[in-house]
Amino acid sequence: MGPLLSLALLLSMGIQFERPAVGQEVSSEDPLFRVEVDLVLLNVAITDRRGRYVRNLQPSDFRVYEDGIQQTLATFAEGNEAPRRLSASGERAVAAITPTTPAPVATEAPDTSAAAEPSLVGTNVFVLFDTSNFMYRSFVYAEDAIADFIRGLDGADSVAVYGYSRNLTRHAPLTNNRWDAIRGLRLAVAGDETALYNCLLLTLRDASTVPGRKVVIVFSNGPDTASAVAPDDVRALAEDEGIPIYVISTKEVNKDPISRNVFRRLTQSTGGRAFFARSWQRQAEAFTEIREELGSSYTLTYYPQPNPNRGWRSISVELISDALSKHRIRTRAGYRPRL
Fold first, then answer.
1. Is the dihedral of CA 84, 114, 189, 132 positive or negative?
2. Is residue 23 part of a domain?
């Protein structure tokens, strides 16, 4: 069930783990127990009829349903504020202890090249930009737009800068140092063919190891020409890990209806947005809109109520009052629990 609740988030919510006292014997015949707590995290953007972001909502304004079952919110945050613990739902989840066999010891450490002491405050932003041969004529313009976006991020945000052509290049690992990120961006050079979906999948895997809120922003200047990974596999990972995907595409992509449809599906199902820009000015505006959304959206978490469904679980978010009912709500469509 994604995203997996990290140790850092457990500690931030005041959950403690007890060890046997010194000298206390633990019988090998005693059953082993493991607390399995998966926290579902939702990034929720709310806009009015004019497309303006709706701010200053409270937890009591929201209702969250999973497979039609109403959920109890565990934490709530607006923009980049620290998450607020709301109720005893965390204690309820910890109490649901079930016997299990010990988890296998990992033989290989996960790739943490993108992780630099992430914080639960702010957003972890992964920028994945096109460095393929589609970018030869417009490389400098793209770099400038991305650099301006990075400079304008909230001080609590962290950013990683990745580039893709046939292969993924991690130009700057996740950092809250804007100059380090821009320095890595400036080291990028245009490459060859485009394997967007391969590289997007790897970026999502990096992001999934980071606790807290995270998003992936894709800047694409041409259709995918070399991926072995299907777009639906990429979409499924982003849905399950709760990572919104934002795509900014240029006029070259706009000529390809297949890519346009794929970008729409990727963004809509994960709670992100697709921008089909016809000019460099519009592309810069798209980065500005994404930055505004990161500072205006809400982060909700909950521990799922008992649910026998082991497959796709749909998620819906509603605003309770009639005055808010006409607002547009955007979040991920659902997820598949980890078995």
1. negative
2. no
How many structural domains are present in the chain? 2
Q: Are residues 95 and 193 in the same domain?
A: no
What is the spatial distance between Cα 124 and Cα 206, in angstroms, rounded to a whole number? 11
Contact 233, 141 (CB under 8 A): no
User: 159 and 73 share a domain?
Assistant: no
CA distance 139 to 135: 5
Q: In this structure, is residue 22 part of a structural domain?
A: no
* CB 190 within 8 Å of CB 131: yes
Q: What is the pLDDT of residue 262?
A: 94
| Other C-beta atoms lying within 10 Å of the C-beta of residue 285 | 15
Q: pLDDT at position 185, please? A: 95
Q: What is the pTM of this model?
A: 0.80
Provide the pLDDT for residue 172.
97
By the 10 Å C-beta count (0-12 exposed, 13-18 middle, 19+ buried), 61 is classed as middle
- pLDDT score for 147: 96
Low-confidence ranges of the chain (pLDDT < 50): 1-37, 89-119
Residues 35 and 178 in one domain: no
How many Cα atoms occupy the beta-carbon half-sphere of 137 within 13 Å?
A: 7
